Amino acid sequence: MAKYHKIVINGEVQFREVDESTGFYENTILTEDELVEQLLDDAIQEVIEIDKGQVERIISFLPQPFHREQVQTYIDYLENLVESFE
Question: Tell me, what's the pLDDT at 74?
Answer without folding.
Answer: 96
